[in-house]
Structures are given as C-alpha cells and as structure tokens.
Amino acid sequence: MSTSRQRSPEVVITGLGMVTPAGSDTMTSWKAVCAGLPTAAPDARLQGLPVDFSCATSGFDANRLLGTDARRMDPFSQYAVAAAREAVADAAPGDGGWDPARVGVLMGSACGGLGTWLEQAARLAEARPRPVNPLAVPKAIGNMAAASVSMDLGLHGVSLGLSTACASGASALGFALDLLRAGRCDAVLAGGTDAAVLPITSAGFDRLKALSRRRDAPSAASRPFDRERDGFVLAEGAAVLVLEHAEAARARGRRPYARLLGYGESSDAYHLTSPHPEGKGAQLAMRQALADAGVSASEVALVNAHATSTPQGDAVEARLIEHFFGSHTAVTSTKGVTGHMLGAAGAVEAAFTALSIDHGVIPPTANFETPGADVADIDIVHRTARHAPVPIAVSNAFGFGGHNAVVVLGRP
C-alpha cells in the first residue's frame, strides 16, 4: 500500500458577488477600488456622535432586489443574499449543474443582526404601544445570513455561520476549502457580511480610540499605512465567493477567477483588542497558509493587507509583510476606498484579490501619501492602479480577540 500523501483536489473560485460601499455589485465595486475613490461620507444614522461618518453601502435597495422577503431579514442577511445571488449567477452552474444536497453555505459575520436587536430592545423599553416583532430573534441571530442564503437558493448542504470578528469572511473561505478537499461538498458559497453602521458601534469603537475622527475631511479618513492615519472608518456590506472543484468548472467550460491554494488560521491568545506587538499569531497563520498552499514567500506577487488605518495594527502588519516578503512584493489595502467592513472585510478583500489575479491589476491604496515612521519598508501600491501579472497572492484578515486568517490564491 502506498504511503504517499493523496493530492488534494484543486479548488477554484468561479463566482463573485458583492455589496460594498463602492457599489452594489462586483464590477462596480472593482472599478471604484481600481480608481482609488474613497467612499467615506457623513452618515445621517450617526448624526450627533463624535464620529458621524461612515462608508455606507452604495445603491443597495433591498426591496427592489429581494422583494417582500426583505422584511424578514436583518440587513446583514439582505446583503448576504444579494451577494450570493450574484455569485451563483456569475458561476453559471446551469440547470442540473449542482446537486443542492452537495452545496454548502458558510457565512462569516462579526455582529450578526445587531440592528434588529437594538430596534426591538427600543420597542420593549417604550411604554409598549407596539409589541416586539415576532421575527425579532430569527432575524437577528448570527446564523441567519447563512440560513437565508440556503433558503433563498434552495441549498441543502452544510450551512454554517462563523464569527471570528473581522477575520470572519476569510475564516469562512478557509473552512470551505477544507470541506471541498474532504469531499463533503461539490461547491460552497463562502463569504462574510455585516450591517453594523449603527450609533452603538460607532460610539463603542470611538471609545476604544479605534475610529478616525477626521470629521473635516471624511473622504481622507481611511488611509492605510499613511503617516497621518488615526483610525479606521466603519463600513458595511458583504461578499460571497463560489468555490468548487476545478474539474467540475472545466467540465462546463467555466474559466475560474483564481485558485484557492491554502489558508492559515491562528490565535494571538494575547489581548481583547490589540494585536500581539511582534505579530506572533499572524506569523503563525502566514506560515500555515504558505505551507498549506505549497508555495514559498518569494513566489507571492501581491499582499492584500488587512491594514485598517489604525496606528498600531498597520505597523504590526507592515512588519509582518516585510518579515515574509521584504520590499519586493506589491502591497495594497482596499480599505482606503471601502473602509472597514468588519466580518465582511476578509471575503471582500479575497474577492478583490481574485480579481487582481484575473485582470493583472493591483488597486491603489487610497489616501496613502507618506508611510508612517513605524511602517516597515514595503512596496505599497498607491496613487494609481498597477498593471502587473499576479500569479500568486495573499489576503490577510485579523480580528479582535486575536483571530488571524490568511488565504493564498493563485492563477488558475
């Protein structure tokens, strides 16, 4: 009997769907990040707060897109369903292309249906002229984005809600890769979603000194790696990626955007909100991801950084990137355009990374002008998009509680 390790089946990305501050679909969002157009602006929902601006979803009309079903969903589920519909249409499985019992749904979210909880708590705190909505709990609980996608598309495979804070979307991609390698699914819809642009989150993050207070110029507030960065900009939205076996995609003539080569997942086990100052947990996740993908650091052409625009987080990540890749790998952070979409961020940025591989275009880091003195010597793409082949790329996602997720993508 052979003792050689069985080769894992090749997993590819065949469909993309997005709802972001840069656009309510994938290509609109992609064009905006490639143009480096920041989306932060005053937000009426946050009026009167110390930080009263955000990166809000652009052009998203839940009633138009989802019809009467929208009333039964919190916005975090609405975003997920809209993105999933676009992703499946993009993957074009065709009639009978997938067995619904073999298609999984993995959706990450940091906050779940927080807006619904708050709305219904306010009703309860009133003199009770209006009762709490009977759908309050099923709209708000954290699994409902995955459940809503499964119900909307009639998918009967594994359905999971994941929460690793701001790494949630990337974690969903990693666990989806495991399901496909193990033969548990033929295809998986994996991604992340959050709808947490709310007074409570703005006030809470501001009290942590995590948000930019650049109220005089919101569009310049999200500035990853820049010397003048002072915090992130709260954002919302979703992304869903269709992952499937390369053989199945080839059989129906679907050219993939990229391969999902590997991932790494670790915990800092260090602090509620701060990354380990030496980035030890992130280094572990990076080593795991590269080993799982079977590639060396020298082969990586692009890093889509988590880089949220916070002083400490960006500095730690820049040192991480320099440690592994030196100054010869291109680095970008699309959060300069979109802001920080919390649990959706890892999925959105992995989708942008797949598009960079497909198009040979690296979006610029919006608002980056001068590197901070604490930012290592790395090649940050800025001002304009860079046209260059991207055979292999890494996308980072890090979250409160010390969650680290790194995915490696490659040219199909």
How is the biggest beta sheet arranged? 11 strands, mixed
Number of strands: 15
Distance between the termini: 32 Å
N-to-C SSE string, H for helix and E for strand:
EHEEHHEHHHEHEHEHEHEHEHHEEEEE
Question: How much is the average pLDDT?
Answer: 95
Structural class assignment: alpha/beta
Low-pLDDT sequence parts = 1-6
InterPro entries: Beta-ketoacyl_synthase, Ketoacyl_synth_AS, Ketoacyl_synth_C, Ketoacyl_synth_N, PKS_Beta-ketoAc_synthase_dom, Thiolase-like
Domain Ketosynthase family 3 (KS3): 8-411
Organism: Streptomyces galilaeus
Keywords: Acyltransferase, Transferase
Question: Which key terms come to mind for this protein?
Answer:
412 residues; alpha/beta; Peroxisomal Thiolase, Chain A, domain 1; two-stranded antiparallel sheet; disordered N terminus
Would you kindly provide a brief summary of this structure?
By secondary structure, this protein is α/β, with parallel strands linked by helices. Helices cover about 35% and strands about 20% of the residues. It has a single domain (about 10-410), classed as Peroxisomal Thiolase, Chain A, domain 1, CATH 3.40.47.
Descriptive overview:
With 412 residues, the protein is of the alpha/beta class. It has a single domain, classed as Thiolase/Chalcone synthase (Peroxisomal Thiolase, Chain A, domain 1, 3-Layer(aba) Sandwich), CATH 3.40.47. Helix content is 33%, strand content 19%. The protein has helices at 26-35, 62-66, 75-91, 114-125, 136-140, 144-153, 168-181, 199-207, 246-251, 280-293, 311-325, 335-338, 345-359; strands at residues 11-19, 41-42, 53-54, 103-108, 159-162, 187-194, 237-245, 258-267, 302-304, 330-332, 361-362, 379-380, 386-387, 392-399, 403-410. An eleven-stranded mixed β-sheet has the order 5-4-6-7-1-8-15-14-9-10-12, with helices on both faces. It has a two-stranded antiparallel sheet with strand order 2-3. The protein has a two-stranded antiparallel ribbon with strand order 11-13. The longest helix is centred in the first third of the chain and has 17 residues, at 75-91. The chain starts with 10 loop residues before the first strand and ends with a strand. The model is unreliable at 1-6 (pLDDT under 50). Keywords: Acyltransferase, Transferase. Residues 8-411 form the Ketosynthase family 3 (KS3) domain. It comes from Streptomyces galilaeus.
